[in-house]
Amino acid sequence: MERRTRVRFAPSPTGPLHMGGVRTALYNYLYAKQRGGDFIIRIEDTDSHRFVPGAEEYIIEALNWCGIIPDEGVDSNGKVVETASPRHPHAPYRQSQRKPIYRAYAEQLIANGYAYYAFDTSEELEKARADAEASKETFIYNQVTRMKMRNSLTLPEDEVKRLLEETSDWTVRFKMPENTVVKMDDLIRGHIEVNTDTLDDKVLWKRADELPTYHLANIVDDHLMEISEVIRGEEWLPSLPLHYMLYKAFGWEDTMPRFAHLSLLLKPVGNGKLSKRDGDKMGFPVFPLKWTNAEGETSRGYREDGYFPEAFVNMLAMLGWNPGDDREMFSMEELVAAFSLDKVQKAGAKFNPEKAHWYNREYLRLKTDEELTDLLVPILEEHGINVVDCPKCALTAGAEFNAAGGDLSKHIFTRDYVRSVVAFTKERATFVKDFWDIASYLFVSPEDFERFGISRSAATEGAPRPVDPRAKVYDDSLTAPFLAKDVDKFWKPEIVEMVEKVGAFVKGYDGMWSVEGVEAALEEFIKGNEWPMGKVMNATRLALAGSASGLGIADIVARIGKKETSARIAYAIDRLRH
RNA sequence: GCUGGGUUCGUAUAACGGUUAGUACUCAAGAUUCUCAAUCUUGCAAUAGGAGUUCGAUUCUCCUACCCAGUACCA
Length: 578
Hints:
Blueprint: E1 6-9, H1 19-34, E2 38-41, H2 55-66, H3 99-111, E3 115-118, H4 122-134, H5 157-166, E4 171-174, E5 181-186, E6 190-195, E7 203-206, E8 211-212, H6 214-224, E9 229-233, H7 240-250, E10 258-262, E11 265-266, H8 276-282, E12 291-292, E13 298-299, H9 302-305, H10 309-317, H11 332-338, E14 349-350, H12 353-366, H13 369-382, E15 386-388, E16 406-407, E17 412-414, H14 415-425, H15 434-439, H16 476-479, H17 484-490, H18 493-508, H19 515-528, H20 533-545, H21 553-575
Parallel strand pairs: 1-2, 9-10, 11-14, 15-17
Antiparallel strand pairs: 3-4, 4-7, 5-6, 7-8, 12-13, 16-17
Helix pairs in contact: 1-11, 10-12, 13-14, 18-20, 18-21, 19-21, 20-21
The chain binds one RNA strand through helix 4, strand 6, strand 7, helix 6 and strand 14.
């Protein structure tokens, strides 16, 4: 009989969702959608001590940002559903609210001999562990030690009854059978066998807070929610035998979900799983969204770092899964169509921040100029640049636009100007915010760099200064806002003369005002004078952009206009006089 | 320690038991351009080690090494 596909992502709200968790959610989502099934979110908050305020909201917002939208568990308003309804017959989806459900199941196991009451206090257990450690052994509460402990297997019936009534810190433990081989199947790993003698008697339910532990809550809820496949992290593989035994003990073997255990995400270098520390150290986020903890420490997020959710999701999907061919670019719909659990890698995947960059660049190039303009405008505004939708709108502000639609002196630009900048610089950008670093000088003149927080001093290059004494002709304060090493290299007296004439030529140029027109005219002018093209162009760029490397001269001139071009050249000559 | 899982270029991965072990990222070189970037071309680079099965092993079996997880009244 074909069962409806129903899978769940069951995070614990003990902190922000890690990117590995996002991947688990994504694989669940893809699996469900491909089979026309349901993707459910369930909040596993059975540990009252580790609850972190805001974590649940964070998890849902993060999944939402990624486009991983639950069919059940969360309502259209993005809140976890608390009461059952036709659309949510399995509510509530927060385990703390399902508290009354679990006790009866724990007692059912006891009644059928699959579990027992344990009265050992945490102090007694700690002592047992310490004693075992002293003799270089590990204490395990299992079929050999349980007969030495205080529980309903060892205590007289009336004593058990008394303790149940009079004390309130007892637990229910699973009675793991002896010497039984549990035969399991994993959708990713294949057949696995484990002998129950290596397993312990896990606590299933705690009287102290009347809550189940993960194992009981998980099995009961997966059963009640009619989960068909459990796709979860590898850290759960060791408890799979217990879960199999629980399904058997409850008599739910016929509807037991199939299991798939995903490998972990590993740190880029060295060994071990990806941690927040690695991200901080190597400069990449490990969380989808920014997160600030109770101590006020902030962790960066992919969203805030400027990643497109599509790029993040695509990158994550390819970490430990492949479509079986060479394709690397996948939209969510394409992932849904192509996904398959048997193409999921068994081994852990080392996360590669470079590849994440590459994905973002690819997705940036896929965006239209219009979309990128929409995203760039707020960033420009943050930097103090004004963008107006139409030239007329700015008339009241007294803007005088050049041919490209910009007023450099008042820092007011039309959307068309911004779009044109986007169009010819998008090949150079990885993130939308890169446009500012690439093209800030198309919005701000060098003399205003400092005021707009743009630096061209050598110190910002990050590299140590050259040791060659000849390389150091100018002091930073003398050359700013021009890049000192480029001043050194290109700002030679004989070249400066030529640059000055280039400025005059542009001022007097009355041909076609386009990148192509300006480019051809400049080339003809420089070559006609038999000047060294490279040296003149680099020195000109230094005057116009503050650095000898960057956008093409004609690209710059065509945007900033005649007046600004000659003004910048004049400023550079004046500033760098010596 | 014990139990379980894992191991193909630096990274992510491909390869009915038969390929010159492929692709992408990174890196390097060349081409191109006024520079830088982009782009194009080329290149560097891997089956953890050892046995066995087989005509033939990256692929199957075993051993060793290394890595990861679990070993809580946490999930």
